[in-house]
Write a structure and sequence with these properties.
The structure is a homodimer. The first copy, chain A, is an alpha+beta fold. The first copy, chain A, is built from 15 helices and 23 strands. Residues 1-6 of chain A have low confidence and may be disordered. At the A-B interface, β2, α3, β3, β5 and α6 of A face β2, α3, β3, β5 and α6 of B.
Chain lengths: 480, 480
């Protein structure tokens, strides 16, 4: 069988060739597949199920803060895209253009949305009139398209899935508060559910979203020491509102601009899960985001009573609310273990004739490979504890890795040297000048400013690059 | 206030001008709004929330039968679309073409998916090898684009939201079974959750999906007597598989074609909900699909204790699992009632000082306007019963309407006369010839064959149109 052949070959070692290891995991865990169109992927059942879990979790968190879901069109007429100057400059080079509908050329070409600020603004400019119409706290789950030159599964593709939230508010303060709230929701979601620890802060001007006044970011660290921008929340002030003329009458019948935000998280977080938690046996999923939390694997299933007992166990776990399935195919147990491990299912439960005799099962943790013998009478409650422990331990492990890969530098030589060793984040002082960011990037072989954290430390008085007075302590890193 | 002004004007009467009434409800219940691009709508929170409820309900039914969700790209290269002859003929005139990516012209133009058979087939042709890879039972929730000339909110738009299921199987029988199963799932969902009764059957050849061997349909009847195709399930045999060369090796190492199905349901069902259940006060939503099942409306809310008690009630209902909200704005109670009615929320609960004194509330049913006095001690259980009754009664009412609008005809004159009165479905015999379908359409002012039901009746020996021997009894109707 072609499929069996695939598994016999082991995947590339993570420490040997991180990029190849990543591609191997994506392919052998059957998360996604390539298509004839560069940068447009097929999200396979195993990959899409992870996204569905992320959606459900995040959507609940959104709705608890008053977010309402909507859906806006995928097509943006060229004149709309051009209304906000910085925005069009940022996006025009990377949009796909629709020029024909049916057999007829369009009077005005339209792009497939790379992001939807302009569409939301256009709608609001026609519908918002009074303070009673505010705030609008809207979000949509959809796909967007950006004509990237180089692409990688989940991390950078032309079409990707995401959510984009867009809000308008009566005051500057309320909009700024929402921007910061959404950054916090992303941080909580990613740390609590994906077990990925983060550093958080504001982007520098050169790294901001096209058209934003401020961009708040959360940044994760991959196992190879590279940073990954995990989610961003943008504060627009009234820039878009003015470009689109979105005004409201307040209680005193005075006309004001609205203040706007937008915020998004994408399927690249599936890539982050792989690169933070995975190992040489494949993916490792945190239990809270795993579409399947445990797989029952019968041992010597041809023997009398084994399959019955295994099925009974699976059903009991299902009824108790666990996401569980069973592999009763005719493959060997070792083969089944490899598949379960490759797919990152957090636990497996082995049950064979001897276990049944002793009224027990063997639970194997995917993260530590620890084998835990559990009485069949206790498995329903015990499994919950084991999954909770895995979730906690996976976060602790990733947090320890992150903490041990945050360093400081006070001279350029120190910084250059440390980035040669691929050391993760480096904290260093910066004057606020974009020229120094460019210089640092050039000298370190690509390290960029990741964020300015709210917890500022005074590492030195001067910018690490130019020696002028320092304004901010910045996290620097090479990034995906 | 602009918004208040909107409500003061009553909507058009349903019996006076059905089309205008429909548009009024869509707009005043704030379900969707137009954009600058013809046929591309904004799904507003009230409208999108209905779609989310439909998604959750249907997705659960799908997954119980082994469906797995995936996501395939929105772009289809022209050569792929052209691989199946009937398919390209059916869709080429109504697709939108992408010709430029960024600033560069594409080597091959691509269309935005009007449906994704070709993409699924392309993927499977590269990945399916053995009987072990079968079946694939996949589905995606996404939007598609068809460059329609005339458009109407929810019923016919250029971009619309839907789910499209695609499956491949080792045998003809298994694929046919899946096609019929999906028709049943749609019927159950639409009748049980949307409270919309249906007639079901097969499409005639001329009404089949482009490329299908058989199309199974469920058809609903709108209040104006017009039919609406509610969902379809297509059996492709091995037509697509042969065009795309999707073959598998069976257990004896022999090469076979796979058999394929696809099936879909779209946001036009929101339009169906309006047109089957709505009245002159607006939308009426069946409780099982209503995003909000009850709205608490405090009466004389400025009086001491009223808001507290109303909030307490709302929280108790929330905890019990009801979808509930409260309108404690400074509008008048009458105003609040109108809004709740327009939005189709199945019940409201009025609670004022006198009610509190008597330890009671007044529940008002949206469908019948019946006022039911309920003790505060019993409201949590009683509300559930009331909602169940509404669901049951709404279906019964729609079923009675449908049954009273199914008639028979044995001569063309009879059929023509009955369709002049806009009588819903007419059952009549047909020879199987497409020319007769065209003739019937011409003579009745647009009635088409809706379906050939499995429960065949013998109304006469001959085709109603040509007088040749009859092959089938067919449901005929004018349709959306």
């Amino acid at each position: 069988m072609a499929k069996e052949k695939k598994f016999v070959e082991a995947i590339t070692s993570r420490d040997e060739d991180f990029a190849q290891w990543y591609t191997d995991v994506v392919s052998k865990a059957e998360l996604c597949d390539y298509t004839g169109v560069k940068g447009c992927m097929v999200y396979l059942p195993n990959g899409y199920a992870i996204w569905e879990k992320m959606q459900a979790d995040l959507d609940k968190r959104f709705k608890e803060t008053g977010v309402e879901n909507v859906y806006l069109p995928m097509l943006i007429p060229e004149n709309l895209l051009q209304k906000e100057k910085d925005h069009i400059e940022g996006f025009a080079p990377e949009v796909a253009w629709v020029t024909h509908g049916g057999n007829e050329p369009l009077q005005e070409r339209m792009c497939i949305r790379p992001t939807s600020e302009t569409l939301f603004c256009d709608h609001w400019s026609k519908t918002v009139q009074s303070y009673r119409d505010l705030p609008k706290i809207w979000n949509q789950w959809c796909s967007v398209l950006r004509w990237e030159k180089t692409t990688r599964p989940f991390l950078r593709s032309r079409e990707f899935l995401w959510q984009e939230g867009h809000t308008i508010h009566a005051t500057y303060e309320e909009a700024e508060e929402r921007t910061i709230l959404m950054q916090k929701i992303y941080k909580d979601f990613i740390e609590e559910s994906l077990a990925i620890p983060l550093v958080a802060g504001k982007k520098t001007d050169s790294e901001k979203f096209a058209g934003a006044e401020d961009t708040y970011t959360v940044e994760a660290l991959m196992h190879d020491g590279k940073a990954l921008q995990a989610a961003t929340s943008h504060f627009f002030g009234s820039g878009f509102a003015d470009a689109f003329d979105i005004k409201y009458l307040d209680k005193n019948n005075e006309l004001h601009s609205v203040y706007e935000t937008s915020w998004g998280l994408t399927t690249r977080m599936i890539g982050a899960l792989i690169m933070v938690h995975g190992d040489d046996s494949g993916l490792i999923l945190p239990p809270r985001i795993a579409p399947v939390q445990t797989r029952v694997i019968p041992i010597a299933q041809h023997k009398e009573g084994v399959l019955e007992k295994a099925t009974e166990l699976m059903n009991a776990l299902k009824v108790a609310g666990y996401a569980v399935n069973m592999d009763d195919s005719d493959k060997s147990p070792g083969w089944k273990f490899s598949e379960q491990e490759m797919q990152g299912i957090p636990t497996r439960i082995e049950i064979g004739p001897k276990d049944i005799e002793n009224n027990q099962v063997v639970v194997v943790r995917r993260d530590t490979r620890e084998k835990i013998v559990v009485s069949l009478d206790e498995i329903v409650t015990k499994l919950g504890e084991i999954l909770e422990n895995i979730q906690k331990d996976m976060f602790a492990k990733a947090k320890a890795f992150l903490d041990s890969h945050i360093d400081t530098a006070v001279t350029m030589d120190e910084m250059i040297e440390k980035f040669q060793e691929n050391r993760g984040f480096i904290k260093a002082m910066w004057c606020g000048d974009e020229a120094c960011e460019d210089e640092i990037k050039a000298q370190t072989g690509g390290a960029s400013s990741r964020c300015i954290p709210p917890e500022q430390e005074h590492l030195s008085d001067v910018c690490i690059c130019c020696g002028k007075p320092a304004k901010h302590m910045v996290y620097w890193g090479k990034s995906y």
